[in-house]
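hey can u check if this looks right to u? its 360 residues, i copy pasted from the old doc so theres a chance i mangled smth
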Amino acid sequence: MTPYQSPYMAWAKTRPAARFDLAISNIPGCSIDDLPGAARELSLQGRNDNGYAPLLEAIAARYGVGQRQVTTAQGASGANFLVCAALLERGDDVLVERPGYDPLLGAPRMLGANVVRFDRPFEDGYALDPARVAAAFTPRTKLVIITSPHNPSSVLADAAALLDVGRLAAANGAHVVVDEVYLDAADAAVPTAATCGDEFIVTSSLTKSYGLAALRCGWVLSSEEVATRLRRARDIVDGTGSIVAERLGVLAFSRLESLETRAHTLLARNMALLQSFLATRQDLECVVPRSGTVVFPRVAGLASTTRFAERLFSERETAVVPGHFFDAPAHMRIGVSAATETLEAGLARLAAALDARDRG
């Protein structure tokens, strides 16, 4: 693969279906019944030059920012790419956390930027450490990219640490990109980093937290100055969003309370189940988040979980994500957002595979 491709996304799109799929990280997809009135909103009409105005209004109201600070995008991945396209030039440096989500490495590399890593170590509970970010800074740094909740661990970035990173970026003429696509699933009460200052740029979507991946309804929250640059970048990337998807996005925002209840009910039940499972496993070392859609345990005695994950699938019909996709090969990402029955059965099979490994 070329340096700017995403091995994880290639794997995720081509892997065989698993009977017990613990590799997913998003809330299960909604049905049309979860969006009452969807049929009335289906239309090919509506002006959408720089985002469908009612959707911009709904997003701005949700996050307490001005409408001119909102730019719509094709999902959170599209939002992250727009930010890179608008703000990076060839030869710029971009700081990206490790372990981390590999499309966040691929986008700046595709645009000719250099990726510099800073660590959020397992031993530190995956905490965001401003000192590590500062040590990675170079004179050419233009962006610092963080996920909160952290992908792959679901650990939230500490608010004070985020502000410290923001001050560092502002002092050096850089921006902090915070991918918050999992935030509403983890804790909708946590305020968005977009209100912390003009140096912050936040990306998100309706995909992961609300079970609306099919809409590809994403957005960027930024200063008005950055938003203008994002819209001009979008002129080149994809022109405008889908009026059909953005009209349905407005409807989804009017139903967010019920969609949140659906997600949080499932995740609370499943996280309790997972925590009980982890308490029985001496061979899994894990930073257990207070909430979220994934966890990222380390498997004792394994340098890499790749072969273990392959055997778990082939012998027990259960999928997890090998840690090498996140630059932490001794770990594996386990999704908490499947149907509870699927999670329970998958964890039983994971336990059997771990026991068989120990016996072997």
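Residues 256-279 form the longest helix (24 residues).
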